[in-house]
Amino acid sequence: GRFYLGRVKGRQAIVSVALDSVPSGFVPTSPSAIELDLTAPPPMPIFFGFVAQAELRVRVFVAATMNGVFDETDAPLEGVRVSLAGGAAVRTDRAGWAYFRGISPGPHHVMLTLNDLAAGYVPASPLTQERTVGEAQAAAIEYPIRAERSIGGRVYLDTDRDGRFDGPAPDHQGVEGGPG
């Protein structure tokens, strides 16, 4: 991280860091350019500070195959709230992703908001999951959701042949209903 510019001529100089050369995941904590008056002794040494930031990505989706991994048969869920323990809450976007950017490296607990799921949608993983994010790294958590839908009805004796259930009638055990 040390640099040396050698002899500099003139009355003024601008010393800067080319931000496009900084590895991804690092952001400046100080100005990235300093203007120096070379007629006076420059401050020595010159410091440019950076800090590593981490990112946690959370995907919520309806899992068609229940293989635990998002694939082309699955459907992303938009608008589902996820939150960090003791921290921010965000909603998933159209692709089913929620992002926590600029978090500190280390372990993070993520919670899925059950009330944001439609009736019949059940998480196939725990509502709270933990993931450790490394310095200047990204980690992901996936929440596969199982769609549990049911259909119910009644088989009845339609004595007046009007196509409507008119109320209790003699019990007809042994009559089965099913798809098809």
Overview of the structural elements:
- The strands form 4 sheets. Strands 5, 6, 9, 11 and 13 form a 5-stranded mixed sheet that branches. The chain has a 4-stranded antiparallel sheet with strand order 8-7-10-12, with no helix packed on it. It has a two-stranded antiparallel ribbon with strand order 1-3.
- It has strands at 12-16, 26-28, 33-37, 50-52, 54-62, 75-76, 81-84, 89-91, 97-103, 106-112, 121-123, 128-133, 138-147.
- It has 180 residues and is an all-beta fold.
- The protein is rod-shaped.
- 13% of the residues are buried.
Notable traits:
rod-shaped, four-stranded antiparallel beta sheet, mainly beta, 180 residues, five-stranded mixed beta sheet, 13 strands
Topology overview:
Elements: E1 12-16, E2 26-28, E3 33-37, E4 50-52, E5 54-62, E6 75-76, E7 81-84, E8 89-91, E9 97-103, E10 106-112, E11 121-123, E12 128-133, E13 138-147
Mean pLDDT: 84
Shape: rod-shaped
Count of helical stretches: 0
- Give the termini distance in whole angstroms: 71 Å
What percent of the residues sit in helical stretches (DSSP H or I)? under 10%
Oligomer: single chain
The strand count comes to 13
Largest sheet: 5 strands, mixed
- Beta-strand content bin: 35-45%
* Helix vs. strand class: mainly beta
Query: Compute the gyration radius: what is it?
Result: 30 Å
Could you list the spans in which at least 5 consecutive residues all have pLDDT below 50? Answer: none
SSE string: EEEEEEEEEEEEE
